[in-house]
Structures are given as C-alpha cells and as structure tokens.
C-alpha cells in the first residue's frame, strides 16, 4: 500500500486543484452576470424547461439549487424541475471536466437532450402545475460589493495575503505539471506535453489571471470564504478516499475481470444506480473512477450521471419529499433503461 501512496496523493492533488479552479471560474461568471440568468425565468412553461435544463447543466449544484428554489416559490413547474434534475450531475461535473473533458461534454450533451425531452413530454401531458410557497434556498451569493458601481469598491482595504496564497499555489501547480511532479508521467521518448496537461495549464492560467486582477472582496469573500473554506477539505478527502479504495480494490481484487462478463456488468450497473440515488456529491466519484479505469462502460457512467443531481436533491427532499420521490422515480426508470441498453449493445 505504501508504494501506491505517492501516485494516489499526486492524482488527488491534481483533481482537487482542478475542481477548485473550475469552481472559481464558475463563481466569477455568476458574479459578473449578477445572477441575471434567474431573471430570464417567466411563466411560460416551455422557456422554463429550456432555461432550467441549462441551469441544471451548470457544473456544480448551484443551477439545480436555483431551480429548486424557483419551484418551491411557485415560479416554475414540475417539468422545469425535472429537466434541471436530469441535466445536473452535481459537483462530479467538475471532476469529469478535469479528468476527461471530452467524455464530460458528451455526458452533458446527452443529459441536456434527455432533459429537454423529459421536460417537454411532461409539459405535453400535464398543464402548468404550481406548488406551495416555501422559504428561499440560496447557494451562490451576491453581496453589495459585487454590484458593478458600488461606491465602496473604490475604498477596499482588504489584506492581500489571500491573493498571494492563491497565486502562489496556482504557480506551484503549473510548475508541478511542467516538471512532471504532478499528473501522469510522460512516456519515455515522448516530446512535449500531453493534451491533458495542456488543458490543465490553460485552466490554471485563466484562474491565475482571475486571481491577479479581481477585486479584493471577490478574492476573500467568494474564492476564499465560499469556495476554499467550504469545499477544499471535502473535495480532497472524498478524492483521496475514493482513489485509494479503488486503487486497492483494483490492485488486490482484480476488478478488471468483473466487467468482462454480462453478470459482472449488471452488478456494476446496479452499484452505479444505487449510488445515483444518494442525494449528495461525493459517493458518485466512485463511478467516475471506475469508468476512468475502464471497469464500467460509458452507458453505466451515463446512467449514474442521469440519476444523480449532487446536493440539489437535499433541499427538495427537505421541503417536498413527495416531489423528490417522483423525480427520483422518473430518473431511475430512464437511467436503468440506458444502462440495460448499454449492456445489451456493448456501449
């Protein structure tokens, strides 16, 4: 186990840093747009479904949180909520974008089309249905300092320590990638950097510019307080635990033989569906790593991604358990159909 630890730590560090940087970029976009995507919602059900699905597709749980809040405020209907929950695959979207951007884009595209289809089908057979007003749920937060012409922005007196720490960590990450300390080691005789590392460096460079030129309030309140303090430890521990566990299982139990038989594929599909029922980001990482190691087919990864919605199900489950069960039931049927079709056709 000890000899596997450096590789596990290296992979954990790369994934953790990449996820956090992607979260920072998403946070920046939200603040810059002043959350105006919410204002696009009106009482036209068809537009609600389109916008809700696009919000759900946003990496992380912010989009589906927003739609859940709109649903509980009697602003959007069940069709829009269903579309958002299908399109969303929670914080795992950040992990997939950092590990396998092409597959993440493919999963996102399929989920978006499925969300549109499910939402419009529901709307076709059910009129716009409202729900009761429930207190608002917030996730991405806008402060007074985030307003573009806020007068206090000219007199920011925040300490620059957080900015220096962020810039230093990102620079170290880039150096680690360039020197081969972090990331997969290049094959002997290979020239230049791999495409994966180039993508990582490009994202790191964008985040570095963000940290250099953003206001102190954004650095401290949004990047440091909202992202790093709330997500860093959780992401690192989940990543380390899942990577270490799957490394051990693959090394000692020869999991690679399980997916070679239909019965084994069925067991892995049931495992992925069971994990997909959990209304929390974190456990679903196991499915991503199983796919990355070639132990499950793409259809099983897609089924898990469709069935889960990260933390988005938690406020919905708390405020309307019946709606949560309805959403999960519909998504389970769709996910199981996709998974079984994948096993039958070999994709």
Number of domains: 1
Report low-confidence residues grouped into runs of 5 or more: 130-144, 150-157
Helical/strand content category? mainly alpha
What oligomeric state best describes the polypeptide chains here?
Answer: single chain
Provide the residue-averaged pLDDT. Answer: 78
The H/E string reads HHHHHHHHHHHHHH
First-residue to last-residue Cα separation = 33 Å
Beta percentage is under 5%
Count the strands?
0
Largest sheet: none
Residues in helices, as a percent range: 55-70%
Tell me the radius of gyration.
21 Å
Count of helices? 14
Query: Which term fits the overall shape?
Result: globular
Walk me through the structure.
The protein has 347 residues and is mainly α. The protein has one domain. Helix content is 68%, strand content 0%. The chain has 14 helices and no strands. It has helices spanning 5-32, 45-57, 62-72, 78-87, 92-99, 101-125, 161-179, 195-213, 216-253, 262-276, 285-292, 298-307, 313-319, 321-345. α12 packs antiparallel against α14 and α13 crosses α14 (321-345). The longest helix has 38 residues, at 216-253. The chain is globular and about 55 Å long. The two termini are 33 Å apart.
């Amino acid at each position: 186990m000890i000899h596997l630890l450096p590789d596990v730590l290296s992979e954990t560090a790369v994934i953790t840093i990449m996820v956090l940087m992607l979260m920072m970029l998403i946070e920046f976009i939200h603040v810059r747009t002043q959350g105006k995507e919410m204002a696009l919602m009106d009482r036209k059900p068809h537009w609600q479904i389109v916008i809700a699905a696009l919000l759900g597709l946003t990496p992380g749980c912010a989009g589906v949180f927003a739609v859940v809040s709109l649903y509980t405020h009697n602003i959007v209907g069940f069709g829009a909520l269903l579309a958002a929950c299908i399109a969303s695959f929670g914080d795992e979207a950040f992990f997939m974008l950092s590990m396998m951007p092409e597959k993440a884009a493919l999963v996102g595209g399929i989920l978006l089309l499925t969300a549109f289809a499910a939402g419009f089908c529901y709307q076709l057979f059910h009129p716009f249905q409202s729900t009761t007003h429930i207190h608002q749920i917030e996730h991405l937060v806008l402060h007074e300092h985030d307003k573009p012409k806020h007068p206090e922005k000219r007199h920011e007196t925040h300490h620059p320590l957080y900015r220096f720490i962020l810039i230093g960590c990102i620079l170290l990450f880039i150096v680690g990638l360039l020197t081969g300390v972090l990331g997969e080691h290049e094959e002997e005789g290979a020239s230049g950097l791999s495409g994966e590392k180039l993508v990582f460096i490009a994202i790191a460079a964008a985040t570095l510019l963000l940290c250099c030129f953003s206001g102190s309030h954004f650095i401290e309140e949004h990047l440091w307080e909202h992202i790093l303090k709330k997500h860093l430890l959780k992401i690192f521990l989940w990543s380390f635990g899942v990577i270490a566990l799957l490394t051990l299982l693959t090394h000692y139990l020869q999991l690679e033989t399980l997916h070679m038989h239909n019965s084994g594929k069925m067991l892995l599909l049931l495992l992925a569906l069971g994990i997909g029922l959990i209304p929390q980001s974190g456990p679903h990482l196991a499915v991503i790593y199983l796919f990355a190691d070639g132990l499950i087919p793409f259809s099983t990864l897609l089924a898990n991604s469709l069935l889960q919605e990260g933390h988005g199900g938690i406020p919905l489950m708390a405020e309307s358990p019946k709606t949560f069960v309805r959403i999960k039931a519909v998504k389970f049927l769709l996910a199981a159909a996709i998974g079984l079709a994948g096993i039958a056709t070999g994709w």
